[in-house]
Design a protein that fits this description.
Blueprint lengths: L12 H22 L4 H9 L3 H12 L9 H17 L6 H18 L16 H6 L15
Amino acid sequence: MYNDKHFQMDNNFLFVAFSHEQTKASTSQSFLLVDQNRFGSITDRLLNLDQGVLTTIIKKMAWGEHIKPESDAEKACFQIIKDLDHVAGKVNGSTTSKKYMQNKIWSLIAWKSAPYFYVTLSPANIQHPLCIYFAQTNKEFKPNILSYN
């Protein structure tokens, strides 16, 4: 630890630092998107977005319905969602970055096969005679030590 422990002892420091990192990453990703050739089409979609269609899509998604875009307005709304996903893909902790990580995991499973898990079962410590003895209960601890043979 450093001599100045002000930030190291602050409970909210990690949350604030992570929030600043996320804001910086999303801002830089937005600026990178602006430099691309697709920026004009994205701004046109944002300016011409039908708010009524967007609210109905949001309500249907909140109810858990599966939505397939049929009209041009619905397709434009879904394209806006894809554009936002493109920006949020590089931001740590966003739902899009989690979705990308899950896709990487599934492709690794398809390439290398499923992972192996080794599970070791151990008895509960609260029922172990040593734990009961050291917890100062009235139970007497007399281990049965076997001979060398």
